[in-house]
Amino acid sequence: MMATTTNTTAIDIADPTFLKCFQNHHFSINWITFSPNSQYLCSASDDNNAMLWCLDDEQRTSNTCYKFVGHKDSVTSVAMTDNFIISASKDCTARLWRINQDDISNCSSDSIQYRCHKSPINSVHINVDGSQFCSASDDQTIKLWSTTCANKLLCTLSGGHSNWIRHARYSKLNSNLLSSCGDDGNICIWDIRSKEAAIRLTSKRRSTHFLGIQWHPTCEYIISSSSSDCLLRIWDLRYEKTIQFYQLHNGIVSSSDFHPNGNYLISSSMDQTCKIIDVLEGRNLFTLKAHTGPVNCAQFSPDGQYFATAGQDHVILLWQSNLNTQHCNNNNDDVIIDDNDDDDDDIQSICFDPNQQMNKSFNVTKNDKKSDDIVSDDHHPLKLSNSISILKCILQQLETMTDSILHIDQRLTLLEEKFQSLSTTT
Questions:
Q1: Which residues constitute the domain of residue 398?
Q2: How far apart are alpha carbons 318 and 322 in whole angstroms?
């Protein structure tokens, strides 16, 4: 298989290196995820199976894998910890599979079945400590489940979406937050304790279907979204606005994922390509053209050394990322930052600091009037930025306004002088 890359700005960053093609699935691969130690990869496919692949250097030369058989319809999504795998299916169930990473051939063939929804499940994700997982479904609900008690439903999140929910993800930095997106063109940020959507983000394009969403790994208020309108968006939850959007693909953008250092974003598309973007400088670094069909998913490994892509050509491609922290100064021809409300969302050129985070206390339950920590909606932590950041923004705006006023004053002075000169002459 030929794998070509197009590096639009390669100076300090080496091209990704193709390592291995995994091919044991017989139908389209819908989702892939890495294990926390980056030694294994799990995949979900339309062949009704999930598979666990070994990425160890000594075994990577062969297709060492273990097949999880049990679902009666397409497996749409998988999530993974060191000890178990969660798979979701169009058969309206999720399954928990115990694994032995020391020897994947000894993985249990038995699973705990969660009879979750009345409609197909599109996404599952496990929270940071592995105590629960969420499932998002065509029935317009998100359900939270315990991983320690078989088939124990913790709560149901509903009312945020009016159409199929395509994706749901726990925040990596705040255990009380969960994001979701769907075919109704909405992105919801949920407070798990109050079971309410604290923030709703909407595209002005009514036909937009959001297919995937990801949290920034080091910046709590930044998320990315992939959508059917061929755009890749980056949102700032403080302003509840899109701060960047990239029109790089010629087809539906199926997924996106941040590099663990937060400086890069990878996207996959129905146009058979993947893109690696420098989000700090707002430019496309690489275009990967290796698949022979639409690409359904692209994911970085937790250590950032690898990424994998998978799609409708039934194969998984493993790459070495070769990404570093050095950046080059180049003209930006790929990122769209515009203030034209008629074009898309309210796009603002707002820079973000990946090392800056929102207030992590977030101890307020919106409807719990008995709580001693209650604050008003005007002081909701999701709507507050770091005070230093706000002051910096205000100071910058004041400086700009001051400069503008000085220029206007100078022009008025010149006009007055000209007017007086003309009056005197007359």
A1: 386-425
A2: 13
Q: Poorest-confidence range of 47-51, 326-330, 360-364?
A: 360-364
C-alpha pair distances (Å), 335 with each of 4, 215, 299: 23, 20, 21
Q: Do 331 and 400 have their domain in common?
A: no
Residue 222 lies in a domain: yes
The model's confidence at residue 423, banded by pLDDT at 50, 70 and 90, is confident
Residue 363 resides in a domain: no
Judged against a pLDDT cut of 50, whether residue 169 lies above it is answered with yes
Among 30-39, 199-208, 282-291, the least confident range: 199-208
**Residue 363 pLDDT greater than 70, yes or no:** no
Residue 309 located in a structural domain: yes
**Number of structural domains in the chain:** 2
Which long-range contacts does 204-208 make (Cβ < 8 Å, 24+ apart)? 204/341, 204/344, 204/345, 205/229, 205/344
pLDDT at 18 over 60: yes
Token look-up 């315990």 returns 146
361 inside domain:
no
Residue 270 falls in which region: left (phi positive, over 0), alpha (psi -120 to 50) or beta: alpha
**How many Å apart are CA 368 and CA 275, to the nearest integer?**
44
Going by pLDDT thresholds of 50, 70 and 90, the confidence category of residue 337 is very low
The string of DSSP codes covering 77-106 is EEEE-SSEEEEEETTSEEEEEE--TT-GGG
Instruction: Give me 15's structure tokens.
Output: 């091209």
Residue 16 one-letter amino acid: P
